[in-house]
Design goal:
By secondary structure, the chain is of the alpha/beta class. A hairpin with a 4-residue loop joins strand 10 (387-390) and strand 11 (395-398). The longest helix is centred in the N-terminal third of the chain and has 21 residues, at 43-63.
Amino acid sequence: MADLLETAPPVDDGYLAYFTEKIWAMIPEVYRHEDGTAIQPGVLRALVETWARQAVTLRRDQDRLWEDFFIEMCSLWAVPYIGDLVGTRLLSPYNPRGQRIDVAKTIYYRRRAGTLRVLEELIADITGWEGVVVEGFKTLGRTFHNLDLPPTPRGRLTATPPGGLADLRRADGSALAGGPFDEYFHTPDIRRARPYGIPKLVFHLYRLGAVELTGVEPKPHAAPAGAAYTFDPSGRDIPLYAPRTRPDHGDTWRTAREYELPAPIPCRLLSDAQFEVKLEHGAQLVSDIGMTAGAADDLTTLAGIRFLRESDLRTRLSMLPTSVELLSANVFQGILRLTALDDCGKSQLLPNAVSVMLDGAPGPLPNEQVAGANLSIWEAFPLHKRALIDPERGRLLVYDPAPASVLVNYHTGVYMPVGATGFTRRFTTPPDAQFSGGGALAGIPSQGVARIDDSRTYSPIGNVGAITGLTIAAADSERPYLRLTTTWRLTAAPPAPPQPDASLTLEGLWIGAQTSARSVVLEGDYETVCLRYCTLDPGGLDADGAEVPPVTLVIRGFVERLILDSCVTGPIRLDGTGAVEHLVIRDSIVQATRPADKALEIGVGVVDMARTTVLGRVDVLRLYATDCLIAGPPVDVTDTQDGCFRFSAAPPGSRLPKPYEWFELDAGTVKALFVSDEYGQPGYVMLRETAPDGVARGGENGAEMGVFNRVGAPFKRDGLNAKIAEYMPFGLAPVTVIQT
């Protein structure tokens, strides 16, 4: 079945119309007249348009002739030819970005072959991911000799001597064990996949990226002390991510630090604060906050001392004669503000990765008023802090005075743009109606473009009737959360020939429910309904373990074509006399509330899916599926004489139409397929490393089945392995460790 979403957008250069009319004018008028009056009119005109398309291709190729000499600007077809000039081994054409960069930097790689610099750059260049390379011999416990470089401690947390036994007096070091920043030393492990050994190079890969969300209203939570919130507006626990801030590759290259990589932020890293008092700080505090001269003199006695923790600084201040003044709330916060060093986790992550705005303040809370904490039981004992953040769970605790309003900025981990997230969607359509500020969302017009300009929470949501041609969209890079308190009805206007049936587009919206399961209901006759980069919350568990209610898409009217493009949805079903002629799903996730429930129940029409992951039961009339992964009970397709099921996976016992090159999932395989099946987690429906090759490489293009087929992870991994073998030092063995 034709792919209804992958038609390339037309190039707006006017060449097609120009060459069509030019060739058409060359044909004698008598033949043009006969073409219009023939039994099948327009045949000659169609032939002319075909010739014109070829002329357009030649003209555009001529216009790009100069650009095709340069790898940075050339067309894709020219990349292999330029690569042949430098003698590189080309990567897979399914990884065009990596292929182009490899050709562009081949000479650069060869000049620096065998260095850690090139090996780390290969990760970003070939795969687009981030990574850290660690030499295995540097992680081994051993006795140093005179041929070694001067020994230096491997890390500052544990102060473990080079190659020596672990210093266990600091528990923080155990959290780093096994990762790229491990400060302990290990005994050799000769097994191939183990990272500890003399000839091993360990590649730690960070596959997820970090997407920023700004101006989000956290969900209030009942807590025994302070005003408690979850960063996630649906009430889930989610890990907060650090954005990529490592310096770009260049002459000042260095390996990445922990806070510079896109990864979940541990409490330890957010609390990592270092301080150093300088001689001028005393005088500056006297002028800024009115500290006494005696206290300033006492403070300068600590000049030049580096404190690795805030508690260490507090302890030393408590030993000074003016400790009462130095440890008072106003003075101590001033000291923290002036003496904080930039090269530490807290200074780098606040407010760049996460920040809190209270009571409409124009900027975030200062760093000295914020601390990282473990809020697993929503209790903590702050010292001169206004807010505590638990980045591992995405929780926030604000102390007196209780804020009237709270907004947060934070980053989430994303493997590929799917569903409602803060990535760029290039939505630039001028709006006819604009909404902002949160609260009730009412007065949406029945036609035109209604745009939501922020990422606030909106509730309740008003029904929309008499729709003729309506788009409800989030502004670019925004992710508003629409919390339903009742069923949201979107009703089309009655047909009025010769006007076409109604059309509706929802884009960039996250639609959730407040207390119980809700539905988005399509009523009336629609020609087209399109959901693009939307999330209809499939449900889950909140921070207390209570159920997050799902949102179901219900078709109660007639929809000629329903399109889901890059969406995450709960169940989709028909109600009453509702019908869908064509349901087209691309690059999306459809999940039932429970694995045994029906995720897709369409008893009429045709369902056309490509690169889609379904968690739950599928019960449809006709099915066309390509590169799909259906994990749940057996699939039930009523009409198996029509449709096809190709390069896809389904549970055993499924009733499928014309299966071709498909993979049958074992009963025990389904649960072990995904890193996580909980919406909101960064590893949501990502395949595990242990997934069978029939799924991980079973797509039509050789990539994985399911929603992340276009990521092309197998091509990236294969290309990276090939380039590592080409540029790594002779005699070493690469080991890959997946961090995210």
